[in-house]
Write a structure and sequence with these properties.
Elements lengths: L5 E10 L2 E11 L4 E5 L6 H9 L5 E9 L2 E2 L5 H7 L1 E3 L12 H13 L5 H14 L17 H15 L3 E5 L7 H17 L4 E5 L3 H7 L3 E6 L2 E6 L1 H10 L7
Parallel strand pairs: 3-8, 3-9, 6-7, 7-8
Antiparallel strand pairs: 1-2, 1-4, 4-5, 9-10
Bound molecules: adenosine-5'-triphosphate and magnesium ion.
């Protein structure tokens, strides 16, 4: 029997007393792109944080499966090593660590091998070119003074080099300009070209990203649950009608 790459089963998640996810299920197959849209406060970032293994969020029931294996209790590090990429799993800024140093360490951990500085530089240059990034970026200190767009580029560069099997991207930044959105869409498309089996879960408010990415599935999340799943027609309906029709 063909199993899903990634499956979330009836997840209940609370932050302290506050019940946020109220029975959320989602199944992602190899190579599929899923978009999750939903109004502010519906629990999208909570879902991302839960998948990240953030201890502020308690799973009270349900499970998370990766290749059919229950990973609900796995630590963030182990999830990352297994091939799950979470865009914001890294600290905001690491003083004195350059983008290239950071990537060398992260890729070595993922591949369980010591990747040389030359190897990393080579693949970084290759990807930075594909992503239209300035080569001087490699020497910058991680996230220090990065603009919103540069943070996105860095995120996508990490995704490209880490070669994940599943990428979960929470596009919460409200101030992203069209270029930064394009970086994300273009980056995901480039990485998928290299690895057509990559599964993607993209949390976003922006119809614009979806136009460029053409997700296979669009899910509408309201009040801690997915209330509708379909194709691009759902996001088009959203664009014209808003969330009103889906609210309880
Ligand atoms: N650590 C926490 N402690 C208490 N309540 C929390 C916590 N994290 C999130 N919440 C609450 O859970 C609800 C969902 O928040 P979440 O950030 O997941 O929404 P979201 O769908 O990502 O919203 P947005 O579209 O604005 O990014 C909100 O009411 C929020 O205040
Ligand atoms: Mg959010």
């Amino acid at each position: 029997m063909e199993r899903s790459l990634f499956e979330i089963k009836d997840l209940l998640v609370a932050a302290g007393e506050h019940q946020i996810l109220k029975g959320l299920s989602l199944s992602v197959g190899k190579g599929e792109v899923h978009a999750i849209m939903g109004p502010n406060g519906s629990g999208k970032s909570t879902l991302a944080n839960t998948l990240l293994g953030n201890p502020d969020y308690q799973i009270t029931s349900g499970s998370i499966l990766f290749h059919g294996e229950d990973i609900t209790d796995w630590s963030t590090d182990i999830r990352a090593k297994a091939g799950i990429f979470l865009a914001f799993q890294y600290p905001q800024e690491i003083a004195g660590v350059s983008v290239i140093q950071f990537l060398r360490q992260a890729v070595s951990a993922r591949k369980a091998a010591d990747i040389s500085a030359i190897e990393i530089r080579f693949s970084m240059m290759e990807w930075m070119q594909k992503l239209g990034m300035d080569p001087s970026f490699a020497q910058r200190y991680l996230n220090e003074g990065f603009s919103g767009g540069e943070k996105k580029r860095n995120e996508i560069l990490q995704m490209a080099l880490l070669e994940p099997e599943l990428a979960i991207l929470d596009e919460t930044d409200s101030g992203l300009d069209i270029d930064a959105l394009r970086v994300v869409a273009r980056g995901v498309n480039e990485v998928r070209k290299e690895n057509p089996d990559l599964g993607v879960v993209l949390i976003t408010h922006y119809q614009r990203i979806l136009d460029e990415l053409s997700p296979d599935f669009v899910h509408i999340m309201i009040n801690g649950r997915i209330v509708a799943s379909g194709g691009m027609e759902l996001s088009e309906k959203l664009e014209s009608e808003g969330y009103e029709g889906w609210r309880e």
